[in-house]
Amino acid sequence: MAEKMALAKAVNESLRKALEADPKVLIMGEDVGKLGGVFRVTDGLQKDFGEERVIDTPLAESGIVGTAIGLALRGYRPVVEIQFDGFVFPAYDQIVTQLAKMHARSLGKVKLPVVVRIPYGGGIGAVEHHSESPEALFAHVAGLKIVSPSNSSDAYWMMQQAIQSDDPVIFFEPKRRYWDKAEVNTEAIPGPLHKAQVVRAGTDLTLAAYGPMVKLCQEVADAAAEEGRSLEVLDLRSVSPLDFDSIQASVEKTRRLVVVHEAPVFFGSGAEIAARITERCFYHLEAPVLRVGGYHAPYPPARLEEEYLPGLDRVLDAVDRALAY
Amino acid sequence: MTVESTAARKPRRSAGTKKSPSTKPELVQLLTPEGKRVKHAENAVYDKYVADITPEDLRGLYRDMVLTRRFDAEATSLQRQGELGLWASLLGQEAAQIGSGRALRDDDYVFPTYREHGVAWCRGVDPTNLLGMFRGVNNGGWDPNSNNFQLYTIVIGSQTLHATGYAMGVAKDGTDSAVIAYFGDGASSQGDVAEAFTFSAVYNAPVVFFCQNNQWAISEPTEKQTRVPLYQRAQGFGFPGVRVDGNDVLACLAVTKWALERARSGEGPTLVEAYTYRMGAHTTSDDPTRYRGDEERLAWEAKDPILRLRQYLESANHADEGFFAELEAESEALGRRVREAVRAMPDPDHFAIFENAYADGHALVDEERAQFAAYQASFADAEGGK
């Protein structure tokens, strides 16, 4: 059934469906119960599934992820919420040292089907630690899978797939898009979780993005179209693994690539994409792969975030520079 | 002059040298260092858990400790011979591990550190399997679910949270199994251990926190970790803590059984502090002569866990010379078996690097495996062309 819903609601519906389908699925996190989470993503779930399955936890992120690992070892499929991006670091050790490595350590004997949900990114005028994009810090770690939906439909289906995954998945939710509404067909057959999607076809240059930056890139493509430029927009959807085949196919057609993310450019996912696409498409490229993202500075106070975050003009500027080669 | 500046000029004792509160902590002991079986009014609550112990059981505990020590000594030798890269000896901690390990039921679940060779023995893990990670052929060579004995955890304290989560799952499943998490005095300082105490208390999880206080975290004495006896920490989290003579296998067995029974009957977590001593180095890479003297070691040698049980077995006529002779032969056979198994342990296949990085696969791992295969094959081609 197709229905228009906000991205936050789509995650909520997806979690509800997972709780209904599998008694081993658990929701854990700070304020996820009665309050329904600070973004209301888990709204109503504790009321309907009880405190044993939708669990308000102590305020200790390492404890949340560490106990989720134990529950997974017992056969449960915990979906844990980290309240904000900047709060994940107390759990970083458990995620990197244990969650990511236990399957390999056990020579494949144990599986860790844990989903770590992290509302991430800026643009909502928040205080410090509430606007960060730490995905590259996780993508560097083998054993983890990293995804980020850009729209309601993907939020719904990618969450279903993340919960079904036998690998740990870090699920980055673009918090500034939580209230954006789009059609969700809850009966469609979804494509593969880690495959990129062309959301707008074009011929002159490829814009690759994920999460909150996909919508921006579509706006950039609209603006460029007015100037007679045809931009292709690729929604990467997954950061680990990255769908290099789809990026390559697009770049072989457009011959130019600009990668956009909110995370700092330095050592960001754009750097990895630039290196690999340069290797794969060396003779197709008409310009170096350019990147637009955050600066190598702490995320600024809210009154400055518009300057820090990639916006329409900064991405258009990069497009112009790439096209000028 | 302000109050603050006056205070600043006062000579102050550093926190590290200040003595703990003067009340002497209770120590549960059922077998004295001289091998005398004791009953104490205060211990009566624990004594009943070993009241019906048979001479055969006692010989079994003795055998477990002797064989564990023999295995441990063999592993140390194998490291010295270059067969293992590292070994973390449990010498001196046999009673704590065998006592607690034998208190468990098959359906209970163990979350060890990297030194629980005696507990692994009790769980039926083949001791040679413990050596793969120390030889460097894997990072943990056994199936955690076949003996309900998790893989060794090297980052200290992390496993206390896994144990707590697992115990939360046990409670959800409605069974009366219990979970035991091992850790040491050093790990007691880790935030994860404090969080495990918090979570287990809040959710009333059926978990026993078994802390082997062996007095030393590599070179740091327990005074560098705590200002109160460790078992007293439990009180602040809302569950009981008890200090047991960690070199008394009977007391460790009794106290752990008591704690497990609390877990099974829905009374939640318990902290057991087994007061013991690491007789050897932290690992084969460590040099304890740099930070502690012989005097301390000699004092603890007099409290040896194996010796005291032997004295008791002999004085009570629970074991004869034949038993000890047979065990000696069994020990030597075990040492030989371990030695041969380690020497025969093959290096892993090169492609093991990529195996099990993910359960459901990962495109980049596939790509890099293919690149690695092509690179390896290039040597074969070159050799073939000669």
From TrEMBL, chain A:
Domain called Transketolase-like pyrimidine-binding: residue spans: 5-180
Pfam families linked to this entry: Transket_pyr, Transketolase_C
EC number: 1.2.4.4
Gene3D superfamilies: 3.40.50.920, 3.40.50.970
Residue stretches spanning the membrane: none
Cofactor dependency: thiamine diphosphate
InterPro entries hit by this protein: THDP-binding, Transketo_C/PFOR_II, Transketolase-like_Pyr-bd, Transketolase_C
GO molecular function: branched-chain 2-oxo acid dehydrogenase activity; magnesium ion binding
EC primary class: oxidoreductase
Oxidoreductase among keywords: yes
GO biological process: branched-chain amino acid catabolic process; response to nutrient
Keyword annotations: Oxidoreductase
Entries under PANTHER family matching the protein: 2-OXOISOVALERATE DEHYDROGENASE SUBUNIT BETA, MITOCHONDRIAL, 2-OXOISOVALERATE DEHYDROGENASE SUBUNIT BETA-RELATED
Protein name according to UniProt: 3-methyl-2-oxobutanoate dehydrogenase (2-methylpropanoyl-transferring)
TrEMBL record, chain B:
InterPro entries assigned: Alpha-ketoacid_DH_E1_comp, DH_E1, PdhA/BkdA, THDP-binding
Region of interest (Disordered), ranges: 1-25
GO biological process: branched-chain amino acid catabolic process
Domain Dehydrogenase E1 component: start-end pairs: 63-343
Pfam (any one): E1_dh
Keywords attached to this entry: Oxidoreductase, Pyruvate, Thiamine pyrophosphate
Cofactor(s) required, per the database record: thiamine diphosphate
Keyword Oxidoreductase: yes
Keyword DNA repair: no
Molecular-function GO terms, alphabetical: magnesium ion binding; oxidoreductase activity, acting on the aldehyde or oxo group of donors, disulfide as acceptor
Name of this protein: Pyruvate dehydrogenase (Acetyl-transferring) E1 component subunit alpha
Organism: Streptomyces cupreus
